[in-house]
Specification:
With 57 residues, the protein is of the alpha+beta class. 21% of the residues lie in helices and 14% in strands. It contains 1 helix and 2 strands, in the order E-E-H. A two-stranded antiparallel sheet has the order 1-2.
């Protein structure tokens, strides 16, 4: 995260990965949390991409 492109990450696997390495009674982030960083793409394109991706889950 931090560029001009839009990115989605699984927070627990990325920025909070240290929680995976130890047992945590109360995790800081929910296991299914996805983090979305919106870039400078056309908003309609981004919404269409997200709609396509989320419809497959």
């Amino acid at each position: 995260l931090g560029g001009t492109e839009s990115l989605m990450e699984h927070a627990l696997s990325m920025s909070h990965s240290s929680q995976l390495l130890r047992e945590v009674k109360e995790p800081m982030v929910p296991p299914g949390l996805l983090r979305l960083s919106v870039g400078i793409e056309n908003a309609e394109d981004l919404v269409a991409d997200l709609d396509r991706a989320l419809s497959r889950i």
